[in-house]
Amino acid sequence: MPTEIKKKYAYKYVKAITIGHRPDGRPIRKYIRENSRAVFDQKVRYYQTLGARGVQIASKAVTVEQWAWQWYQAYKAPKVGASQRINYETNLKRHILPVIGFMALSAVRPYHLQQLINDARREDGIPLAQGTVRQIIYTLRQLFEQAEINGLIEVTPCRRIENTATSKSSRRALTRDEEALVRRVAARHWAGPWVLLMLDCGLRRGETVPIGKSDLTRDGLLRITSSATYAEGNQAQRKGTKTAAGERLVPVPPELLAQLDRSGRYFFHGQNGKMLTLTHLRRMWSSFHRACDREAGAKLYRNKIIEHAFDPAITPHYLRHTYCTNLRRQGIDLKTAQYLMGHASITTTANIYNHVDEEDIASLQRAVANRANA
Hints:
The chain is of the alpha+beta class. The chain has 3 domains: 1-58, no CATH class; 60-169, DNA polymerase, domain 1, CATH 1.10.150.130; 176-367, Orthogonal Bundle (hpI Integrase, Chain A). 44% of the residues lie in helices and 13% in strands. The strands form 4 sheets. A 3-stranded antiparallel beta sheet has the order 1-2-3. Helix 2 (64-76) packs antiparallel against helix 3 (82-100), helix 7 (192-199) crosses helix 10 (316-329) and helix 11 (334-341) crosses helix 12 (346-353). The longest helix is centred in the middle third of the chain and has 20 residues, at 130-149. It is elongated, with a radius of gyration of 27 Å. The termini are far apart.
């Protein structure tokens, strides 16, 4: 327990109470200074009561950042899974605290939060998708509602906050031009085989990490039985597939099979031979995406891309989506496609199969014209 120090700073009674801890573990302290013993004792009891309730916040002038980490440690970290903890920490560190973390909790108004939502961007400056903004709003509502419940603010400022994001989470296939460009770059880029494993075999990004020569059958099929997660940090942790349906056998094009590195335990690995870290994966995709952008004609200034020619929103998931679309274009039936994709629900596969784009209509028109001229 903190010790009481008398007659310091010209106050008769002074007590330092630990009201929480910063993310790096350093304590946050509240100093209670009074000349009146009765008032002093009343304040001490008040803050100690908050501490006993798990709140441990001492002042209505506490900042959003101070309360955010107290709220997270008391209400979220103990009861949510590792992936959810990462989501909450990302929302706080990347989108919320850099904007309003310095503000006094009681000074935050609805327009501050609405402006935060309106200005939310990815690291590359692209506006966030609706689903991501929805998660940020959810985090804000919980944070401020608990502040209201604990008496730190009179009323939460989160009422009537609108999701102004205009773009939905995109899960489209590459256009034929984009796919052709990706294949050209993959033919010479060091990350090409990794990219083609998603484009030509439909693997999820996490499924490319623990895959290796032991997963190849004698018939040249690839057995998918596990995936990698980074819920605990930068190092990969092996886990089962996303669903039971994720365990499957997929064919591998012979030309891709010849490119896969079978010298170690994994096709793709770090210098130590272990599974790729999250940093490795991000660097691989960043390097490959940049190469595609330059191939497409992006404008550079001092080696920095200042005008994109290759859609900056494209992620590795687009490759898997393209694989599914190509199955449909090849006439593969829906049930077989569901198996190859590892979808638990055939509806998920059908949603991709049902997406007919302008290029499909143009191909149909060319086919009809060819039959007419035959």
